[in-house]
Amino acid sequence: MAHRILIVDDAPIIRLMLKDILTVNGYSVIGEGNDGNEGIEKFKELSPDLVTMDITMPEKDGIRALQDILAIDQNAKVIVITAIDQRDSLMEAIRAGATDYIIKPFETDRVLSAVRRAFGEE
To answer: CA–CA distance from 61 to each of 9, 72, 84 (Å)?
Structure first.
């Protein structure tokens, strides 16, 4: 059975790009959220195997959403996605418990490598 992934990003084009990369490579994208609050609700509703989480979003940012998801399930796997100029936020996300990270603009190989590592496939 394919691993089930939730994509949380406020940019529809990024969600589409991630969904394409993941589905073509055998993963099942079971839901999408456009901010941290929606990501948390979808996490509770769908119980995904992995979440990709943008750090910079309106309403609730990815770091706060990551912390809330880990409070719900301390074993949750969350890969954060950030722009190259947001190193401080990235370090904060890793300290908060992010499984891995991807820097935008991202390459397909980096996305797949992070996902495979999160699932212990690499």
So the answer is: 10, 17, 17
Q: Where are the alpha helices (DSSP H) in 30-86?
A: 36-46, 62-72
CA gap 52, 70 in Å, rounded? 13
Apex CA 51: angle with CA 9 and CA 24, to 5°? 85
CATH fold of 4-118 reads Rossmann fold (3.40.50)
CB 93 within 8 A of CB 101: yes
> Which of helix, strand or coil describes residue 11?
coil
pLDDT digits (tens, 9 = 90+) for 68-101: 999 999 999 999 999 877 778 889 999 999 999 9
Going along the chain, which residue ranges are E strands?
4-8, 28-33, 50-54, 78-83, 100-104
Say how far apart CA 25 and CA 18 lie, in whole Å: 11
Evaluate if pTM is beyond 0.85.
yes
In the chain, where are the structural domains located?
A: 4-118
Query: Biggest alpha carbon distance in the chain?
Result: 37
Q: Do residues 104 and 83 touch, judged by C-beta distance below 8 A?
A: yes
